[in-house]
Specification:
- The chain has helices at residues 11-21, 34-43, 52-61.
- By secondary structure, it is an all-alpha fold.
- The chain has one domain.
- It starts with 10 loop residues before the first helix and ends in a 9-residue tail after the last helix.
């Protein structure tokens, strides 16, 4: 059985991702995309790098999509 890779995002970064996904998208965009969300986490210095697939998996775990806005 293969070992699991360490989590890319800690609890704080994950909470920030969810809050960002539920906020208004950046100027010039109608919706958040997975790549925009990943870039925002890097911009906010929560991680050095993160893939859009990691973002998708985390949002999926919370039963969210990148297009939901509160």
């Amino acid at each position: 059985m293969a070992a699991l890779a360490p989590r890319k995002l800690d609890g704080v970064a994950e909470a920030l991702l969810i809050a960002t996904a539920c906020s208004a998208p950046p100027a010039g965009h109608k919706l958040w995309t997975l790549r925009l969300l990943a870039g925002k986490l890097v911009e906010l210095e929560q991680v050095d790098t993160v893939s859009h697939e990691t973002v998708r998996q985390i949002l999926n775990n919370w039963r969210l999509t990148e297009h939901q806005v509160l």
